[in-house]
Design goal:
The protein has a single domain, classed as Nuclear Transport Factor 2, Chain: A. About 25% of the residues lie in helices and about 30% in strands. α3 runs antiparallel to α4. The longest helix is centred in the middle third of the chain and has 14 residues. Strands 7-8-9-10 form a 4-stranded antiparallel beta sheet, with helices on one face. By secondary structure, the protein is an alpha+beta fold.
């Protein structure tokens, strides 16, 4: 995989934050941030549909109609976090969350093969595992996220 660096982001109850350690901004691989933002990039109130009535209050990301009005494939509509908020952690909810994860990561399929797995860990915790691999590289990148359904927040990223 191509190794490029980006500012390390993490999810706090207030949203994405820049990680600082020893008075310095931490770095990470770009793919980590791509996966994190695709799955937990906010926009949980509404997704852009393209047929929103003029003059109504929009709850989707403000940049979608402004920057990507005619390109729905480039719009930011994180379905995973919304699915985590709206689904009960049972077998049916797990499948809905799995589908949301796959939809959010669809845009990365042009650079990597993607496999995902969603596992219910306990009554209130679910694990989302994402593995990215490139056909010309034997090294896989694995990302694991633990969601606490009682707190409605991401509690661990590995």
């Amino acid at each position: 995989m191509i190794l490029t660096k980006d500012i390390l982001l993490y999810m706090s109850p207030d949203g994405c934050e820049i990680s600082v350690q020893d008075n310095d901004i931490e770095l990470t691989e770009v793919l980590y941030n791509q996966v994190l933002l695709a799955l937990f990039g906010g926009n949980i109130e509404a997704s852009t549909t393209g047929n929103e009535p003029a003059g109504t209050i929009r709850e989707d990301w403000w940049g979608n109609p402004l920057l990507f009005n005619n390109d729905q494939g480039s719009q930011f509509n994180s379905q995973t976090e919304k699915a985590l908020m709206e689904n009960v952690l049972n077998s049916s909810g797990r499948i809905n969350i799995q589908r949301a994860v796959e939809a959010d990561l669809q845009y990365l399929k042009s650079i990597a093969n993607i496999s995902t797995n969603v596992v219910i860990l306990s009554t209130n915790r679910i694990q989302i595992e994402v593995v990215l691999s490139q056909p010309d590289n034997q090294q896989n990148k694995q990302f694991v996220f633990i969601w606490d359904n009682a707190k409605k927040e991401l509690i661990r990223e590995v």
